[in-house]
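User: DUF112 domain-containing protein, Billgrantia bachuensis:
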Amino acid sequence: MDIILAAVGDAFAWQALLAIVVGTWAGIIIGGLPGLGSVVGLTIFLPFTFGMSTITSMALLIGVYCGSVYGGSITAILINTPGTPQSAATTFDGYPMTQQGRVDEALGWATFASFFGGVLSCVILIFCAPQLAKFAVNFGSIEVFALICLAMMCIVGVSKGSVMKGLVCGMIGFFLSMVGSDPITGADRFTFGSYTLSSGLTLIPVVVGAFALSEIFVRFSSRDDPGAKIPEARLRLPKLGEWFKRWIELVRGSLIGSFIGALPGTGAAAAAFISYATAQKMSPRRDRLGQGEPDGIIASESSNNAVTGSSFIPTLALGIPGDVVTAMMMGAMVIHGITPGVRLMVDQAQTVYSLFVVLIIVNVAMLILSKPSIGLFRYLFRLHQGYVMAAIVMFSFIGAATVRGNPLDLVVAAVTGILAYALRRADYPLAPLVIGMVLGPELESSLRRGLLIKRGDFFELLTHSGISMALFSLLALLIVWTVWSSIAQWRAAARNQPSYD
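Assistant: Predicted structure for DUF112 domain-containing protein:
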């Protein structure tokens, strides 16, 4: 008990609270600027932590991390441009709600779902970290492959207009993810002899091009359309009765994000798409998903923000960073004297409990700072639309270039923007392209590693373990159910067609 009280005292020190406010607000702004995100934010603020105390420095970085994940939803809803890849799934229902004049409601649901998911993941982190870390170890390459295959079913759900068009875009995204070095042999693929392409294509330039730049092209091509104006928005949090009606969706998305975040190598973007795919199958309002349904925002935002807490489970308990962001956080911990691993809870228990309390305070600060942050974006969007569009293009290219410092990423963003604009004009959905790009690398690498384990026998993957068998069985049921539903809808449409006999 003395350790816990001391940890709470460290977390509530004025230096730590100030670092939380500054980091969270800066994270929200950075996350909302298209092309920037958690990695850029942490890169900017990491040098400022040198000389700070351990808890104060980690409070600043955790605030930037959590704030940036939430901030990406603001521009995703307002202008159909996700500030971060984690918020790409939020555009599916967030922007349609904006077009329907329900932008305040959409922002309210995104904010509350982000807060709920973040807090619930913190609670899970505090009470279940050792047990979840042990269970996450059971997920090897084959189990992760089965899980990613389930997430790929999301392509069918977001391609309601034409499944074939959705599959085409999904394959384009999957192909883009394969450019570069082979994950197993290291051989170059689809580089056409270019040294700069050997490092592959990263997600941020593709997302910037697919959403931000293509949206700019669409807006300029329809500049006389009054519907293309950037909306003025205010935050309206859902009332108690409203969120009580959707508490199952909130809990389900948060649990999915907490579970996915505990698996090394997945990340918030994958968690958001998996949660959205689950909502397409289980939400009582699934027929309205993709048309401006809050359940879609809840699924995405509660899940990707739940990752912020649970991603620390493998990092703290096992010393295994789950993605680039947690790898940077782990490096910062080592710099400030925190040694992640199995001995951390024993050797530095007070520090660990302080980090738990900081995570909770950061989520509360995010909820409090959401209204002035949205007000700041609303003020910026009152400027002439041309200036705003020019700023979005500038920040998009800055974000695309600063991730790796590779000038090729600017070209990738521009070419992807032109391709995405052409696809949108032909009524091809862009969501499957991003899904293929997000899930493609992990799908390929886990499959290749699994085949190496099973000596090339694909069918042995299906019976590798109880977890993989359960996941593959669920995948088969979903495929059968999807095909059966499509056939039933086709027959119903055929019966309803008028006869000309």
